[in-house]
Each structure stands twice: as structure tokens, then as C-alpha cells.
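Researcher: Go.
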Amino acid sequence: MSTLANAMDVLKLIARLRRDITVTDVVTELGLPKSSASRTLSMMAGYGFLDRDAVTRAYRPGGVIMEASYHFRASRNAASLVEEALDALVRETGYTGYINVLDGADTLVIQMRAGAGALQIYTPPGSRAPAYSSAMGRALLARLGDDEVGGLLGARLDQGRGHAPKTRKDLFARLAVIRDTGWALSRGEYVTNVAGISSAVLDPATRQAYAFGIALPAEELSDPLVERFGATVRDAASSVGKRVGDPYWLAFGASVP
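Model: Structure:
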């Protein structure tokens, strides 16, 4: 493996562990020989990519990385990156795309991009729906704990249709699947005959979560299409999440091949 590839893996390791790292961490987590791990860390420190603590001898991001990170955050934010990811999803899939946020127990549309597909029903910006009754809403709810979700929604789940969860137990089971897979699916549960595939990103700087994804005619759904677009939406969210330091996506990327 090249020195540059090793350096990239070291920076990803720091992001994943969210702490200073040692030679032992690099050997254990990345599987590098001790000599290679030590040489990589020393070279990165020498070029300013890492700093070394004088007491603990552990490494942390150095001045070069911090300056680049500051420039990135000053010029880009989670909202703009989500918009770019949505535009790319709409171009790739041909389906209409949305960005939603939570507003109390509802999900609120804040952006829409019309696709080239045959979807005839649109939910324009400003539209609201019960969060539990859509892929967008459940992607956002999955970023909360079950206790918080229960307190937010109350006891009644009576505004959904079709395959929407009817009980808290059903909802919590679906949220657990979303946390494991990274994406959510709905099948005409609030807007009849419209399906949705969504994922969510949390901006750690503002604590604002954004769900984004695609809407398509429910009759077009098939298992291969669901798996394909589920992975597409998940990967788009993962890319944005890692760039903004979303802890969920940093950990998810470490555990999913």
C-alpha cells in the first residue's frame, strides 16, 4: 500500500475514533506492520498533517489539516452539500427528489427537484406530513432515540395509509432497520401511489438533520430497484455525512463494506 493511501487511512481512522491515535491504534485498526505505522505517522507529522502530543505521544490532526478543514467549512455547509447530492440523485435516477426537515412531529419539505420520470403528484416546498408516515420522516426519526421519538409523536399513529406503521412497536422496529441499513422506504403511506427512498444527514455544527431522497410511482417498485436505489441514496448520504463529520456516517462507513 502506498504512503499516500496509508495517510488517507490514518486520517479516516482519526475521524472514526474521534480521538488522538497511537502507533498501536494504527497497527490494530489498519493492520499495518509496526514499522510502517510508525514511519507513516512520523512522515505525516513532519509535513504538518499531524501533530504529536509531547506528553502522551499520540497523534492528532495538524495545522495543514485544520487549515484545510476551516476553509472547507467556511465555504461549504451541510445544507449546500445535501442540495448538491440531491441534484446528482435526480440526474442519476430521473426521479423527483426532495429535502425535508423535522418540524415537531411533522416532516416539512424545504427543497424539491422535479425529475424526468412519470410521477404526476408533487409535494411542493412547505408541504407537511406526519413524520412516521413517510420515508423522509422515518429517516429523520431514526436519527433520534426511541424514547425521544415516542415523546415527539405521542401515542396515536392514525394518519398514515397502506403500509404505514400502525403501532409504536412497528414504528420502532422500522427505525431500527433504518439505523442498520442507512436508508428508509415508504410505499404510498401518505401520498397515495407514491413511494419514497430516503436517507438523512446530521450537521454536527448546527444539530440540524436533513433527509433527502427520491419519490417514484409505487407501481414501479421491485425488489432489485429498491435495493439499487436504497444503496444509491445511502451512499450519497454517507458521502455528505462523512464530509461534514456526522458521527453516524463516520461509524457506519467503518462497519459496512
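Model: The chain has a mean pLDDT of 87.
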